[in-house]
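Input/output pair, single chain:
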Amino acid sequence: MLDYDKEADAYDASRGGEPRAAAAAEAVLGLVPQTARTLLDVACGTGIVTRRLSAGRPGLQVTGLDAAPAMARTAAARLPGAILLADSRQLPFPDEVFDAVTTVWLLHLVDGPQDARAIIAECARVLRPGGVYITTVDKAAAHDVGSDIDAVLAPRPRRPAQDSADHVRTYAAEHGLHPAGTARFRGHGQGRSPSSTRADLRRGWFTMLPPGEPLSERFAGELELLPDQEVPRPDPEFTLLAFRKQADTPGNSPAHSGN
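Output:
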């Protein structure tokens, strides 16, 4: 997995910057009820989306948190006084205090179903009855856009997708969260080029392809043979799912970190 402390400085520029953040925030806010007054953005990263969530809805008090110190510092510069350093599996809040909770581009990063379950359990715990939990799903699959790059990489080993929509729906239902909507948005600037994909291979972006390993270098060599080395292929489209917490759901017990 990437070191997100080391990635913080270049993170936004390498992932679509403000256009992608604007698209994500607009889609998220479209699923947040107009009556919501408080929102928690879990694993907020650099805060580039978090800031837009705050600016895009007057009267919505937005709090962000991230487990990577460099990410949290960057986010705090964008949204002073509203960012915490914390583990998404142990949220530092009492039960039922937020009207909306979001996890944008988080669940695909976790090691296994136990972590995905723990994160969703915590999000449900801090959500008020009638509140909404919103999350991205199927992130890795979204990057497969049917390009020549995807054809080269098709045989690669893959981690099980911890953010698959079916899994997320199951985990959400376990904590009294029921489907309440869906949205899609464009991942501006996320279209892969052969050269950028080779660079990602060599810095450990593909978790099942360690840099320098023969298989990684084989894929890098095949990518080098593709035409239009610097031309990005189509941008992915990401999916959000929203879930509403039952008004009569009993409080959930806090999840414990696997650290």
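The two ends are 16 Å apart (CA to CA). The longest strand covers residues 127-137.
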